[in-house]
Amino acid sequence: MSPLPFNLSQEAIEVQLRQRLDLQGAHRSYIELKAKKDQAEKDEEETFRQQMMAKFAEDDRIEQMNAQKRRMKQLGEICNIEVPYSAAQLCGLVTDLQLEH
Questions:
Q1: Positive or negative CA dihedral for 91, 94, 98, 100?
Q2: What single-letter DSSP state applies at residue 7?
């Protein structure tokens, strides 16, 4: 009776072991490469996210400046309207109207 299982020669066993070790090494390499690729993808996504956040912040800042400019322009237009009566004259009109009634 032979001490080797399935009557395999020592050489055949060594070939199988080498193949198994090669496959394990290839699998390890694949796993490492996949992990590096996944990390690079995450880094790229984070960079993109930060760029978009900066762009949105800049867009918001510009929109706020434009809104402030609009408000200032509207305020300027309101201030440029000629008022037929001064505040003192209006107060006098109100008291005159109150006296009439």
A1: positive
A2: G
What whole-number distance in Å separates Cα of residue 60 and Cα of residue 75? 22
Task: Look up residue 87 and give its amino acid.
Answer: A
pTM: 0.52
Residue 47 clears pLDDT 70, i.e. is over it? yes
What ranges in the chain are assigned the alpha helix state H?
Answer: 10-80, 87-100
Contact 13, 4 (CB under 8 A): yes
Q: Please say if the pLDDT value at position 71 is more than 50.
A: yes
- Alpha-carbon distance of 45 to 53, in angstroms, equals 12
The string of pLDDT tens digits covering residues 1-19 is 445 556 778 899 999 999 9
CA atoms within a 13 Å half-sphere pointing along the CA-CB vector of 32:
6
Radius of gyration of the chain (CA): 42
